[in-house]
Amino acid sequence: MKPIFHILAAASLATLLGACDSRQEDQRENALENRADTLEERADAARDSGERKADTIEERDPGMNSRATENAADSVREGSENKADALENQADVVRDQKD
Question: Which of 37, 54, 77, 79 has the greatest number of C-beta atoms within 10 Å?
Answer without folding.
Answer: 54
